[in-house]
Amino acid sequence: MNKSIKVALAGNPNVGKTTLLNHAAKTNLKVGNWAGVTVEKKEGFVNYRGYDIHFIDLPGIYTLEPISEDEWIAYNFIAEEKPDVIVNVIETTNAERDLLLTTELLEFERPMIIALNMSDEAAKLGIDVDIEHTSELLDVPVIRTNGRNGNGVEQMLDKIVESAQNPRYPRAPKYHEQIETLLDRIAADGEGGFGTAREKPNKRALLKILQESDGRYEEKAKLEKSLKKGIDGIIKEERYAFARGLFDETFKKKKSTGRDITDRIDKYALHPIFGFFIFLFVIFLLFKISFDFSTPLMNWTESFINDFLSPLALSALSHVGAGKWLPQFFSQAIVGGVGFVLTFVPLIGMIYFLLALLEMSGYMPRIAFVMDRFMHKLGLHGKGMIPLLLGFGCNVPAVMATRTLENKRDKYLVMAMIPFMSCPARLVVFSFFAVLFFVHPAVVIFGLYLLGILIGLLTAFVLRKTAYRGKLSHFVMELPPYRIPRIRTVFQITWVQVKSFLYRAGTVIFAASVVIWVLLNTPPNLKNQSDSAAAYVGKAITPVLAPIGIKDWRISTSLIPAFLAREIVLSSMGTIYSVDIQHKTTEFHFLPALEGQMKGLAEATKASCMSLLTPELQTLQTDSGQQSLQTVIRSSFTTASALSFMIFLLLYTSCLATVAVMVREGGKKFGLLFLAYSFVIAWGVAFVVYQVGSLI
Amino acid sequence: MNAFQAILKEKTMTDSTDTASKGSAIGRRTLKDLSVGETARITDFLKENDAIKKIEAMGLRRGKKITIMQKLGRGIVVKSSNSRIVITSDVAKHIEVK
Hints:
The structure holds two protein chains of two kinds. By secondary structure, chain A is of the alpha/beta class.
């Protein structure tokens, strides 16, 4: 059994802690939540020189005088869980600011390592750090790291192991003489039970007692009076002074040579007029690339599953002499259900890839700044733009991201808008139906996205006039420098998301398909599917859905499991409708088929890349020659009912994960009320669209 | 509601009721009054609240030199050392500059 070391990564936001963790832990990363709160908790495990190093990435914070939830988490972790080593990651180019947190961390007197990150950027700006001197002053190992190429990560691991073998406790910062005298007295008094404790209280604990001791120490009152300040303010100023002194002592800035690229980009990106158009252009690119690039690949995936994997498996099944029901189960539940949803993997991957790229480039907060002008007029917070944009990726992390909004009212307003932002799971359904029923599917899909945004804005408007009145709160936000994202990290993030989609396909979607298939075949040996248990269930809820044009039991049945996740509506329909497909029993030849698939993949990749060269948004095209699911599903919709069906699916929060996170973040009442509200709105809009559409 | 949220709520409540500033802003120059491209030094904070505490922790402290990079609506982009911070004018009016 190896010895384990618990390491906390602490630092300001955007200093590259997570990238360092990625370098150190490689694939052994775990992403979860902190107990009781929805703040993301990243952990990494490294086996190094016979030690199990367990990294905990604390939320990025500026100070350990906790105000926000993130700060409380970091504070509690360091104070209560007592990590074996704290790695304080500092953005070298912003060290003067970052050293406040360093000062506060030193007060805990835990073994510590200072990692001066982004050393390459600092060198470019002519910033020079005397690391030996810093190390001497604080009695803490100091190293240089570079998140871009992973330089210094090994040295960090070495220092962590050294620290575990031979703990080195840092020198706590020295403050105002009178404060120090007071702290000595508190320590001697043994206040707060320290007298009996074996461990010597750390400086932070002593300071806390001093801050909370009302009227116990005469000198404290005297000091406050002479400095005309409360003790909290005095300690704060002392910390700033220490950080400032440390900075002046160890950081030297030579005349920088290069002009700052961030300032040059910001001249346009934050410009009152250009900034807005740049924003629109970026959003356009996001959609264009995700649609156009993935369409050829999606077509290929579909043919790979239907023309290669499925016949391959079926011929294997017939070789081993499987009975009648196994091949039937395979082509209906597995290929029809799960396989159907898997075709959309390229689209989902592309969207996540681009969103990760956007997030890591540093552009996101600029959007908040540029859009605040409009959002403000609508009574919303500019910072609320970020969760809303994330909502296009997935509503669940978007709801979690609302915690960056300090004001409760702003948070609830944004949370009530997020579920109307269409996510890739919905896009999967839209892209299928829009192509099937409309000449210009891209226009229809774009319209649906806009409709979602409009309903979101209306919801916020109504809430602001009723439940959440009050003044709009201020905001304070950092604009990080632009950085070219490390492509490997972007791929890693994309893969995590795609993996979770594949996991859903293999678990929830698979289970739903199996249940539907079993219900379809209950009671056994049915002549007519519409007498099955599945049909019975669907018919029972048809009265509710008939006014919005959903009269076929096969569709209403599919909608029930779709509450777990929206794309299940497609897999369920795939399972149900597969029954009607007449399978041609052609001979299957492995090698020629494989060769054909490989050629197809090469062509699809070429088509994907070529699509990036055209300036306009191409329509989503699927092979029109294909019969199969498309044809049979088409027969049970009209254009009006297909549109109303898509609108219903867009607006109704039919996603268990989103409802769950809304309940957790906003309370049970909020989550459930919203669920009911979204159903009413979805039904209402779909009703109007269907009734009007049917007249035309 | 968990402990964190309870504290958060309490904080925001005290924040909104605390309207009394340390002194009147008349006659003083605040960050809000600076125009784009102008450089100045922070001399004092006229109010003590969570937003101001956060700004200080983010690096805008007494004595720091700042430059206004852009203004748009109520938002102001302030550069200090190598960090850029957006603050709204209702916070900027409590930051005295010279």
